Amino acid sequence: MTVALIDSGLGLLPTAGWLRRLAPSLDLLLLLDPDGMPWGSKSAQFVTDRLLAGGEVAVERGAQALVVPCNTATVTAIDTLRERFEPDIPVIGTVPAVKPAAAAGVPIAVWATVRTTQSDYQQRLIAEHADGIEVFPVACPGLAEAVDRGDGAAIAQAVAAAVEQTPRACGSVVLGCTHYPLVAEQILLGLPEATTLYDSAEAVARQALRRLGTDHAPSATPGRVDVVANGRPGVLPPAAHRYPVGRALAAAAPMPLEFLPPAVSVRGATSGTLLLE
């Protein structure tokens, strides 16, 4: 069984890592768009066209499910992708973890790309799940791109700018871009010590498995991890190897739990391996 993950860059790593951990026998097909990245700065039509093109390639290569581990692509074009491929092929999008963060009952900051921050989708999500909770949208220009490049200095600069925009009263920070969990500890270090991060990669992976009706049992026969870049067979870019989850996926190796971003992170309780090396 093959699950395809479609994103412009390295934002698919956390969700792919969780799928590898939960169902090692699955074949993973990672579809990247290095020619068109980053999607966050592109028009809605551009993102929609790229997402549909990725879906077509995935289905041609035998994918039984399509996962969109990208908040920007989900808020922009998930409905169009579902219209094209469902009900034959399940399509799973990525939603910022506003609901579990709101359950804590403290003010929330939602870090995301500029496009996601400005989207009606995120505003509806906040209105539906965080009614009565103070929510502060924080746009993080350049952070996803810096993570894609593995550029430590640019990551530090973008994180510092986002921290500056985040009110200190926010006890919860939702990582509303799938790139950000790759540097979760660096983000935590810049925030007040009691801050909790919320990420949705594990939940998206579990939802994909539910839609497929497959179990989570380990297998003696690990599945393949294949990469397609703009429709052509490829490999994960060098920057992916700067992150433990990227190295494990590049080697199609088993996925240690400590390589993965937890759904909820607090300082001192996350894995040190999430730091950029």
How would you describe this protein?
The protein contains 11 helices and 11 strands. It folds into 2 domains: 2-94 and 202-257, Rossmann fold (3-Layer(aba) Sandwich); 98-200 and 261-274, Rossmann fold, CATH 3.40.50. The longest helix is centred in the first third of the chain and has 17 residues, at 44-60. Mean pLDDT is 92; it is low at 270-277. The chain has 277 residues and is of the alpha/beta class.
Summed up, what is this model?
The chain is α/β, with parallel strands linked by helices.
C-alpha end-to-end distance: 33 Å
Structural Rg: 17 Å
Number of continuous helical runs: 11
Question: Low-confidence runs (pLDDT<50, min 5 residues)?
Answer: 270-277
Q: How many beta-strand runs? A: 11
CATH topology (fold) name of the largest domain: Rossmann fold
Q: What is the count of distinct domains?
A: 2
Q: Determine the fraction of residues in helical runs and give it as a percent range.
A: 25-40%
Order of helices and strands: EHEHEHEHEHHEHHEHEHEEHE
Major sheet characteristics: 6 strands, mixed
Residue fraction in strands? 15-25%
Q: Estimate the global geometry from the Cα principal axes.
A: globular
Return the structural class: alpha/beta
CATH class of the largest domain: Alpha Beta
Mean pLDDT over the residues: 92
- Main-sheet strand order equals 4-3-1-2-9-10
Can you tell me the CATH architecture of the largest domain? 3-Layer(aba) Sandwich
